[in-house]
Design brief:
The chain has 13 helices and nine strands. The protein is of the alpha+beta class. The longest helix has 81 residues. The two termini are 107 Å apart.
Length: 553
């Protein structure tokens, strides 16, 4: 069966049931109207039969009263002619009424028995009509009895007019008519009672049938409607509570199944929309989180850049202090005492120029940093003679050592040319930081030594893998628990703060940063009161990078 036909099955059953109930009600109404008509006909026939019976009785009574009037007239009593005329008019009217009721009786019942009774009734009425004409003539001619007239004979003569007509006994005729009409009345009454009984049975039967049919229809459709309506109601409540995953069972192919299918489709579509909105919201939240993370990272980067910038400014400020101190110390030593040879002044001025050049480089870094960021401090690497750099650094730091009353010594470098790949200005700055720290935290009369040595063997220049620069002092030393923190920015140990109140704690962090930038490292070995040894390790320059390097450079 097609789905479209199945969808209207329940509706057709409901329409058919209601149509049958309506038809039954209409039929009951039609049957009631028909039964009412039959009952009304029976009642009308019984009423006409009763009226005919009463007509004959009344006619007989009127005739008897007229007979009494004639008897009074013959006896010479007061007999009013108006009463006679009134009685005669009543008899004529009663006879006419009987004729009309007889015709109505035939119209109401045209059966064979009714036609036979009608003919008998018409025969009686015809005899009575002729008898009434003869009686009116006799009554009109009646006179009081004359003296000497036999009253018995006169009464018999008058009675013959009242009791016989056309050779028939009117008394017997009226008695038979009354009896016949009484039987008709009884028959019609019984028929009316039977019709009412049948109508009552019909009404009770149809009412009972309608009640049973209505009850059965109500039970059937109640059971048929209860389950799907409950399921639809529960499904609607589930949708109202937001339980979009709930589904209404789709059983059969009725209108309720179509409604359930529509609600399920709506719930599925709503669930799809909700899932889509959830995904969109999650995507939006993810995008917001990503953007927030990016903004946080950007903010952190800005904060780190700002922190690096501040640190760089502090580092450069710290670095500015070392060359300026060296320049001032060199100038003060040169100017102090008696005149010296021109070569001494030339050497001092040369060292001042070199230190000033270093100071200019630091200033250039500061300007570059002001324009960009800490990462702008780039290195220009080339093969360098590490022994020469160590000698120049010791010469620049000599003035600072003399100002502090510290002996600064440089041991003899190893044979050959210890080459490294690096930035000359940065390496000189790195060596000066290590020498400056060693001098600052030494006691007056102490000694600071610098030693350059090879470490391991390899393919580098001179056959070494790396070069080590050890700066050894006899200063205050560093407690073991603070060794791990000395490379942190702005950290100063307790002994360092007691020895010197000035200082920013940036020298060693800068030294480590510069060493790492050159692929090397800085290590400290120290003990309280026994001095400190700072070891700078730099990788040796590759052999191919040293080709063509001037040994005197």
């Amino acid at each position: 069966m097609p789905a479209t036909d199945n969808l209207v099955m329940f509706r057709r059953r409901l329409t058919l049931a209601l149509s049958l109930l309506a038809t039954a009600v209409v039929l009951q109404a039609v049957a009631a109207v028909a039964a009412l008509g039959v009952a009304q006909d029976k009642v009308q026939r019984g009423r006409v039969a009763s009226d005919i019976q009463r007509g004959f009785i009344e006619l007989s009574a009127t005739k008897q009263r007229l007979r009494t009037w004639v008897a009074q007239l013959q006896q010479g009593a007061d007999a009013s002619p108006a009463l006679r005329e009134s009685l005669q008019a009543q008899m004529r009217q009663q006879l006419q009424t009987l004729r009309e009721l007889s015709a109505d009786r035939l119209l109401l019942d045209d059966s064979a028995d009714s036609r036979r009774e009608h003919l008998q009734r018409q025969d009686v009425l015809a005899v009575l009509g002729q008898s009434l004409a003869d009686l009116e003539t006799a009554v009109d001619n009646a006179q009081p009895l004359q003296p000497g007239v036999d009253a018995g004979e006169a009464w018999q003569a008058l009675s013959a007019v009242f009791d016989r007509s056309q050779g028939r006994d009117l008394r017997l005729l009226l008695a038979d008519s009354s009896q016949r009409e009484a039987a008709a009345v009884a028959r019609e009454r019984a028929a009316a009672d039977a019709a009412l009984a049948r109508m009552r049975a019909l009404w009770l039967g149809t009412a009972l049938a309608l009640a049973l049919a209505a009850l059965g229809t109500a039970l059937y459709f109640g059971r048929a409607l209860r389950r799907p309506l409950d399921e639809l109601s529960q499904g609607a409540l589930a949708l109202q509570r937001g339980q979009l995953q709930n589904r209404i069972p789709e059983q059969g192919a009725s209108e309720f199944t179509a409604v359930a299918r529509s609600m399920n489709s709506m719930a599925s579509e709503l669930e799809t929309h909700r899932q889509g909105e959830t995904r969109h919201r999650q995507q939006l939240e993810q995008q917001v989180g990503e953007r927030t993370a990016e903004l946080t990272e950007a903010l952190q980067a800005l904060q780190q850049a700002e922190a690096r910038r501040r640190q760089l400014f502090a580092d450069i400020s710290h670095e500015l202090r070392t060359p300026t101190t060296a320049i001032r110390g060199e100038a003060e030593i040169t100017l102090r005492g008696a005149d010296r040879p021109a070569e001494d002044y030339r050497a001092a001025l040369t060292r001042i120029v070199d230190t000033s050049r270093q100071l200019g480089g630091v200033i250039d870094d500061l300007l570059a940093m002001a324009r960009s960021d800490i990462d702008a401090l780039s290195l220009v690497k080339r093969p360098l003679d590490l022994a020469r750099l160590c000698a120049e650094a010791v010469a620049q730091a000599q003035a600072l050592a003399e100002a502090r009353g510290v002996d600064l010594l440089a041991e003899e470098p190893p044979p050959g040319q210890p080459l490294v790949l690096g930035d000359e200005q940065r390496l000189r700055q790195l060596l000066l930081v290590l020498l400056d720290n060693a001098i600052r935290y030494s006691q007056p009369g102490g000694r600071v030594s610098l030693r350059l040595q090879a470490q391991g063997t390899g393919a580098g220049a001179g056959g070494s893998k790396a070069w080590c620069v050890d700066v050894q002092d006899q200063g205050i030393g560093i407690p073991p628990q603070e060794l791990a923190q000395v490379f942190e920015r702005h950290f100063r140990g307790s002994a360092a703060r007691l020895h010197r109140s000035d200082g920013s704690g940036l020298g060693l962090p800068i030294a480590r940063a510069l060493a790492l930038a050159h692929g090397g490292q800085v290590e400290l070995h120290s003990a309280p009161g026994q001095g400190t040894r700072a070891r700078l390790t730099l990788p040796a320059a590759p052999a191919f990078a040293t080709a063509g390097v001037d040994a005197a450079a």
